[in-house]
Amino acid sequence: MKLPIIKQLVNFAEEHDEDYLLETAETLENICEVPSLKDEELDIIGELISNLYGAIEVSNEIKNGTSKKEALNGFMSRVLGSIDK
After folding, report:
1. Cβ(49)–Cβ(28) below 8 Å
2. Biggest alpha carbon distance in the chain?
3. 52 and which of 1, 7, 25, 70 could share a cystine (Cβ 3.0–4.6 Å)?
4. Residue-wise pLDDT tens digits, 2-41
């Protein structure tokens, strides 16, 4: 996951609608079912999906009153913490 991409997606959700992010993630998940996709392509799509769901989670935290900076930093801390385990 890349913080700059998640920040951009959070901004997009604020300007438009979070449903766009969810629908995009669902579309990409469906594309992953294409049997002819190479591993590299699946990795890239998977990274995009992860960033989309990360942005949705951060966006939800912001809606619940957390500042954008705190929500982004908290999310990335959780991600990095889960990688270290």
Report:
1. yes
2. 44
3. 25
4. 899 999 999 999 999 999 999 999 999 999 999 999 999 9
Q: Are 25 and 53 in contact (CB under 8 A)?
A: yes
Q: Give the count of beta carbons closer than 10 Å to the beta carbon of residue 52.
A: 24
Helix orientation angle between 18-31 and 3-15, rounded to the nearest 10 degrees: 130
Its sign, for the CA torsion 58, 9, 54, 78, is negative
Q: In a 3-state reduction of DSSP, which class is residue 54? A: helix
The Cα–Cα gap between 43 and 65 comes to: 33
Distance of CA 2 to the CA centre of its chain: 9
